[in-house]
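// run 5 | inverse folding | seed 20
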């Protein structure tokens, strides 16, 4: 039992509903992300690894011992856009059908990674699928390829590797083979979770909110490190218009991930309490 979400959080306390561990492309194990969250003053925390729930038990146990309210989550990739991702907050991580969906996602990821490594090898880059597989502790991702390119001296950081080799138009680009957004939303909802569009500001041109509302979409990740103040306002208005709740996350990936956002979502305390109230029923309690 990780305790209830604090009905009212204290001044200075934070929440973070979007984070990654090394079960996908984060760099720290789940328990260490929990400790880092506690150190940063996070009192309500969700782990949302890409297409896997394998880190949730470890995260929940550590959160419980630290007195942090924990929400078990996931971030599902879609095929519409490389950055159109659907967060699932409070999914039942034992739901057989949902686990089957994640297994299928894992094989599509595997196929994409194989394709990327073949393309890179054909372009003269010294890289193999087996090496990538050896780096991953859970979900395989292009970030693992970027890490390998960095360790072999082909790039100076993950983002440099994406720019030079993995982005569209570069030799190692292959499109995402994920689920359709509506399928992802339905899979999350059927597993008892709330489906939330991750970082909607990065994918505005591909948002289809009316259709997704019909499919069961519940929230928008309004508060996100790279959303400008204008974007945040615009997204809040969209959330109100469609009846979605707003969520907030840092998309923390740990040290050496090439990302600078630290744990704790960027939002004012009054809105923080509203966000906390919207997701309180998803707090882990088994
Ligand atoms: Zn994402
Ligand atoms: Zn993420």
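// decoded
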């Amino acid at each position: 039992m990780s305790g209830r979400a604090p009905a009212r959080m204290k001044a200075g306390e934070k929440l973070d509903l979007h984070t990654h561990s090394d079960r996908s492309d984060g760099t720290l194990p789940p328990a260490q992300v929990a400790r880092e969250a506690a150190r940063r003053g996070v009192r309500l925390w969700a782990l949302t690894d890409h297409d896997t729930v394998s880190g949730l038990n470890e995260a929940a146990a550590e959160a419980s011992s630290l007195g942090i309210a924990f929400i078990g989550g996931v971030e599902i990739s879609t095929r519409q856009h490389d950055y159109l991702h659907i967060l699932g907050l409070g999914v039942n991580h034992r739901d057989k059908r949902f686990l089957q969906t994640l297994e299928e996602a894992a094989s599509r990821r595997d196929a994409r990674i194989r394709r990327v490594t073949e393309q890179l090898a054909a372009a003269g880059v010294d890289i193999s699928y087996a090496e990538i597989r050896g780096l991953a502790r859970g979900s395989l991702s292009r970030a693992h390829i970027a890490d390998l390119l960095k360790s072999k001296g082909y790039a100076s950081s993950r983002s440099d590797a994406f720019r030079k080799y993995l982005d569209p138009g570069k030799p190692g680009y292959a499109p995402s083979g994920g689920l359709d957004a509506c399928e992802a939303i339905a899979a999350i909802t059927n597993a008892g979770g709330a489906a939330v569009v991750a970082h909607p500001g990065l994918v505005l041109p591909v948002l289809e909110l009316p259709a997704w509302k019909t499919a069961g979409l519940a929230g928008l990740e309004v508060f996100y490190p790279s959303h400008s103040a204008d974007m945040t306002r615009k997204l809040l208005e969209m959330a109100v218009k469609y009846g979605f709740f707003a969520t907030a996350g840092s998309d923390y990936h740990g040290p050496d991930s090439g990302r600078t956002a630290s744990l704790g979502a960027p939002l004012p305390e009054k809105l923080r309490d509203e966000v906390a109230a919207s997701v309180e029923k998803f707090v882990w309690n088994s």
